[in-house]
Specification:
Blueprint lengths: L4 E4 L5 H8 L8 E5 H7 L2 H8 L3 E8 L3 H14 L3 E5 L4 H14 L8 E5 L7 H7 L6 H14 L4 E3 L5 H8 L4 E4 L18 H7 L3 E4 L1 H4 L4 H12 L6
Bound molecules: cytidine-5'-monophosphate (C5P).
The site of cytidine-5'-monophosphate (C5P) has 16 residues, from strand 8 and helix 10.
């Protein structure tokens, strides 16, 4: 499905999204709508993006009791998202309920949105895990375990670092999706991302989809940056 490049629309309003997308008119993108934009604009932002021909990853990271997640997912499937996510920490029953909700909400004749799990947030570190959450296993072990749990619950993949993609594929199978943020061009600033990889490395490491925000959205020439992304993903060197 879709292009492997998910452009994170981390903007506070539809107006700014429209301004950013203007040069891309006629180019169908795969875009990510996160909490900031969705909570401002509501479901109509998804409908708007779909009307423009874009695929939408709705990055709302659901985490609640199973029935609430099921009903919420039913609605998100109706809204037309192509990809959604949950926190694996919600447990097996919650993840199964997410899939049930998506199945129930998908209009007939359409494919159900794919659903991936967040294992551990990249803002989580070993100390927080042990001292704040009282989880005694090493962080990396919990990531692998949560990925297997997501797979066993019927999910389609996980959000992870490209550096974890090989491990995830080894444990969950080649078709289990690795959707990887933390992507930067070689000459970019990392900003607040700790572990960054280039588009080319992400592909070599086994990422199925890369999530890229500021390297495109804050580029002086977003269209040119997007073309560079395609070029480098396909193995090309910088011209
Ligand atoms: O601007 P940048 O390329 O860092 O944006 C990455 C996007 O991916 C942001 O929307 C960020 O919230 C999201 N994300 C992430 N790391 C995760 C999960 C999501 O950077 N583990």
């Amino acid at each position: 499905m879709h292009t492997p490049f998910i452009v994170a629309l981390d903007f506070p309003s539809k107006q700014e999204v429209e301004r950013f997308l203007r040069p891309f008119a006629g180019t169908p993108l795969f875009v990510k709508v996160g909490m900031e934009l969705y909570y401002q604009e509501g479901p109509s932002i998804v409908a708007f993006l779909k009307e423009q021909g874009h695929a939408v990853f709705l990055d709302l990271k659901l985490h609640d009791i199973p029935n609430t997640v099921k009903q919420a997912m039913k609605g998100l499937a109706r809204v037309g998202a192509d990809l959604v996510n949950v926190h694996a920490a919600g447990g097996r029953r919650m993840m199964e309920a997410a899939i049930e909700g998506l199945d129930a909400g998908t209009p007939s004749g359409r494919m159900r949105p794919r659903c991936i799990a967040v294992t551990q947030l990249t803002s989580m570190d070993e100390r927080m895990l042990h001292e704040e959450l009282w989880i005694s296993r090493p962080l990396a072990e919990t990531v692998g375990h949560y990925a297997v749990l997501a797979k066993d619950s019927g999910l389609d993949g996980v959000v992870c670092s490209a550096k974890e993609a090989a491990l995830i594929k080894e444990r969950c199978g080649a078709s289990f999706l690795a959707v990887t943020p933390g992507i930067r061009f070689a000459d970019d600033a990392a900003h607040d991302q700790v572990r960054v990889v280039t588009p080319k490395s992400a592909r070599e490491l086994g990422a199925d989809y890369i999530v890229i925000g500021r390297s495109i959205t804050r580029a002086a020439d977003p269209l040119g940056a997007y073309a560079r992304l395609q070029h480098e993903w396909n193995g090309g060197e910088r011209e």
